[in-house]
Amino acid sequence: GDYNGFTNGTSQSATIFTGGGAGTLKEEESRSDIFSFVYTPSKIDLNLRVDYWQIEVTDQVAQFGAGNIVGSCYGAADQSRADQFCRLLTRDTNPASARFRQILTVANDYVNVNVTQVEGIDLKAVYRKDFAFGDLVVDTAHRWTLSNKTGLFSDTALLEQAGDIGEPIYVGQAQIRFERKDWTYSWNIDAVGQSNETRFNNGTNPIVSTPGSYYAYNGIGSVLYKTKTETTITHGFSVRYRSDNWTIVGGVRNVFDEAPPSISTGVFFSRLGNSALTSQYDQFGRSYNATVIRRF
Question: pLDDT, tens digit, for every residue of 111-136?
Fold first, then answer.
């Protein structure tokens, strides 16, 4: 066949076709429900807001990506979902061909996603305290995604994605800022909760090596894939000077050089080196920045 399991150590190539979907795509439609609670006590300078929200989007325009199409064809949790992706592939059906049964093309067109349902809670708090020598501000925002379900096709069940890699249940930011005349000193904290690509494997069950594979050849009977990303917290620091004519900012991102969490290859998720490649993680490590603005 064109695929021999997660541990066969082989690779192959295919031609990717992309179409714009003209004449076949429908317009997106959405509905959102938001319930908010705001608390502003009179005795302290505090502004607290909590939002509970639900959003439903139908016929969302999306492009799956060739790697996701192939991965979902072979790794989808339910067969009906896998079949929908497998029909986007074409294989070599010539028994005499050297590529018999291998994937030849992948149709990566723009399509309408049947429905997406997202539910969560946002918390935003800003506290300010004025002193004779300056002002202290604590500004923090947090999000808990309670559910993130997608039904890609009309005849497939909704798939829960909250907690998957790239879709953490919790993300949060906080800034502790001290302002004194023309100077502002800021300490920033970014937090990303843990996640786990459980659709591939729960991270605790070893996968038996395929006979004849690289692993079996080297005497490795089974492989335990790392599918979980740990909670990651990074810190940053900046100093800003602002006058009528000048703004000067200097800072350090990822002060403690925190590395993004690693995952195993073959987990059907993009990596940079051994790290999960998602927008939530800093891939550069500790870095320095400076900006100078002159107004005329």
Answer: 888 888 999 999 999 999 999 999 99
